[in-house]
Amino acid sequence: MAASKNAPEPAAPRANYHRGNVVEDLRKVAEHILATETLEHVTVRRLSRELGVTPGNFYNHYPSIDFLVLDIAREAFDRLEVTLQAAAATKDTKVDRLISHAQIYVRFGVAQPELVRVMFGRTDRGTIHPGFRAASLRAFVGMAELIYGEGGFDLSDTAAAHRNCPLAYSCFALCIGLARTIGAGQFDIDLSRSEDIDRFVDLTVRPMVQGAMATF
């Protein structure tokens, strides 16, 4: 029997139905927004709209937007740590290792200024994402051990760390400060040329680090 021309056609699938891996795709969209827009644009509503899922679906996979953003930052810390350790292994002196750290931080800040805002601008004490807190502490300890040696910096006794390891705090603040200010375009540097960035950081950091290390 021929189908009637007036018979209703099968309903087309909804265009906004998401068939991919929602967990990974939410993360990828958030990473893309952080890389191309600003942190403030990373919202549950925006991610849900981009993927064609409901905001409620987001919460099936992540407890909050803060958790997702901090998890992206946690992974970035892990990647950065590998890069920093590899670079440090090629330098012969503490001064050169610290300058190399600063250069890597600044280049990362230029490439990912909004991610740097999350990594070094958030003060989560482990209540939202314990893994982020642990990763951020590892980054700090990694720099401290360039100065004081492995095991020379103990965060379990913060009072002693403040008293005995002031140079670690100074160097860390210097690196992060440069990463954020240069990444934000505060200085007249060609940010498309990594060699220009490295040269500027070397000229800026070396005198301060050499002077500090002379009193160490």
UniProtKB/TrEMBL annotation:
Compartments, as annotated in UniProt: Nucleus
Listed Gene3D superfamilies: Tetracycline Repressor, domain 2
Stored SUPFAM superfamilies: Homeodomain-like, Tetracyclin repressor-like, C-terminal domain
Domain of life: Eukaryota
Keywords, comma-separated and alphabetical: DNA-binding
Domain HTH tetR-type: start-end pairs: 20-80
InterPro entries, per the entry: Homeodomain-like_sf (IPR009057), HTH_TetR (IPR001647), Tet_transcr_reg_TetR-rel_C_sf (IPR036271)
GO CC annotations on file: nucleus
Coarse class of the protein's main subcellular location: nucleus
GO molecular function, one term: DNA binding
Protein name as catalogued: HTH tetR-type domain-containing protein
Provenance organism: Diploscapter pachys
Lineage, broadest ranks: Eukaryota, Metazoa, Ecdysozoa, Nematoda, Chromadorea
